[in-house]
Amino acid sequence: MISEETKQLVDKGVMLPLMEEFYTIQGEGYHKGTAAYFIRIGGCDVGCHWCDVKESWDAEVHPPTPVGQIVENAVKYSKTIVITGGEPLTWDMTELTGNLKKQGCDIHIETSGAYELTGEWDWICLSPKKIKLPTKEIYPLANELKVIVFNKHDLKFAEEQAAKVSDDCILYLQPEWSNREKMIPLIVDYVMKNPKWKVSLQTHKYLNIP
């Protein structure tokens, strides 16, 4: 049980529930194949049934960690930082991104967009979920749209979401990992018929890295 003082610091984004942090190769989307330091923040109430990091959902099981410590750990490894979750925008990202910017970092976020966008970002990967849709403010700011395809109906959802982002936003369809054998042929066929889309794969899982 955390103290009321710690809870207030978390609410302000001065401390954050840190699930894990690691240096690896980006596996998905536009920056796949490039080295980056990942900061995974606990806490998410979007609740996708196929989520592969359900252990991130409960913020209370992840230790509140001072932003300064998170930044110090990150910059030892890389200037390219990816903030992910859980859903990182559950929390105020202003303090974390501000401190990373002071260190000259290039900061990316992977988000469902379900909460207000806080913080300063160089790249926004918006991965919307049907259960809890993005705020309207984030759509024009997204650099890439990544829609997870679990069934064929997700392609209709993908088009609905693509209609809301800017013309410069890069569009990705990514098969949900547990159903990839069925979805990959569907996605390949769809992208060939609709070439504004690109295929994204979870290449880090094929490489057997985090």
TrEMBL record:
<keyword id="KW-0408">Iron</keyword>
<feature type="binding site">
    <location>
        <position position="86"/>
    </location>
    <ligand>
        <name>S-adenosyl-L-methionine</name>
    </ligand>
</feature>
<keyword id="KW-0671">Queuosine biosynthesis</keyword>
<dbReference type="GO" id="GO:0016840">
    <property type="term" value="F:carbon-nitrogen lyase activity"/>
</dbReference>
<feature type="binding site">
    <location>
        <position position="48"/>
    </location>
    <ligand>
        <name>[4Fe-4S] cluster</name>
    </ligand>
</feature>
<dbReference type="InterPro" id="IPR058240">
    <property type="entry name" value="rSAM_sf"/>
</dbReference>
<comment type="subunit">
    <text>Homodimer.</text>
</comment>
<dbReference type="GO" id="GO:0000287">
    <property type="term" value="F:magnesium ion binding"/>
</dbReference>
<comment type="pathway">
    <text>Purine metabolism; 7-cyano-7-deazaguanine biosynthesis.</text>
</comment>
<feature type="binding site">
    <location>
        <position position="210"/>
    </location>
    <ligand>
        <name>substrate</name>
    </ligand>
</feature>
<dbReference type="InterPro" id="IPR013785">
    <property type="entry name" value="Aldolase_TIM"/>
</dbReference>
<comment type="function">
    <text>Catalyzes the complex heterocyclic radical-mediated conversion of 6-carboxy-5,6,7,8-tetrahydropterin (CPH4) to 7-carboxy-7-deazaguanine (CDG), a step common to the biosynthetic pathways of all 7-deazapurine-containing compounds.</text>
</comment>
<dbReference type="GO" id="GO:0051539">
    <property type="term" value="F:4 iron, 4 sulfur cluster binding"/>
</dbReference>
<keyword id="KW-0479">Metal-binding</keyword>
<dbReference type="Pfam" id="PF04055">
    <property type="entry name" value="Radical_SAM"/>
</dbReference>
<keyword id="KW-0411">Iron-sulfur</keyword>
<dbReference type="GO" id="GO:1904047">
    <property type="term" value="F:S-adenosyl-L-methionine binding"/>
</dbReference>
<keyword id="KW-0004">4Fe-4S</keyword>
<feature type="binding site">
    <location>
        <position position="84"/>
    </location>
    <ligand>
        <name>substrate</name>
    </ligand>
</feature>
<keyword id="KW-0949">S-adenosyl-L-methionine</keyword>
<dbReference type="InterPro" id="IPR007197">
    <property type="entry name" value="rSAM"/>
</dbReference>
<protein>
    <recommendedName>
        <fullName>7-carboxy-7-deazaguanine synthase</fullName>
        <ecNumber>4.3.99.3</ecNumber>
    </recommendedName>
</protein>
<dbReference type="InterPro" id="IPR024924">
    <property type="entry name" value="7-CO-7-deazaguanine_synth-like"/>
</dbReference>
<feature type="binding site">
    <location>
        <begin position="25"/>
        <end position="27"/>
    </location>
    <ligand>
        <name>substrate</name>
    </ligand>
</feature>
<comment type="similarity">
    <text>Belongs to the radical SAM superfamily. 7-carboxy-7-deazaguanine synthase family.</text>
</comment>
<feature type="domain" description="Radical SAM core">
    <location>
        <begin position="31"/>
        <end position="210"/>
    </location>
</feature>
<feature type="binding site">
    <location>
        <begin position="127"/>
        <end position="129"/>
    </location>
    <ligand>
        <name>S-adenosyl-L-methionine</name>
    </ligand>
</feature>
<feature type="binding site">
    <location>
        <position position="40"/>
    </location>
    <ligand>
        <name>substrate</name>
    </ligand>
</feature>
<feature type="binding site">
    <location>
        <begin position="50"/>
        <end position="52"/>
    </location>
    <ligand>
        <name>S-adenosyl-L-methionine</name>
    </ligand>
</feature>
<keyword id="KW-0456">Lyase</keyword>
<keyword id="KW-0460">Magnesium</keyword>
<dbReference type="GO" id="GO:0008616">
    <property type="term" value="P:tRNA queuosine(34) biosynthetic process"/>
</dbReference>
<feature type="binding site">
    <location>
        <position position="44"/>
    </location>
    <ligand>
        <name>[4Fe-4S] cluster</name>
    </ligand>
</feature>
<feature type="binding site">
    <location>
        <position position="51"/>
    </location>
    <ligand>
        <name>[4Fe-4S] cluster</name>
    </ligand>
</feature>
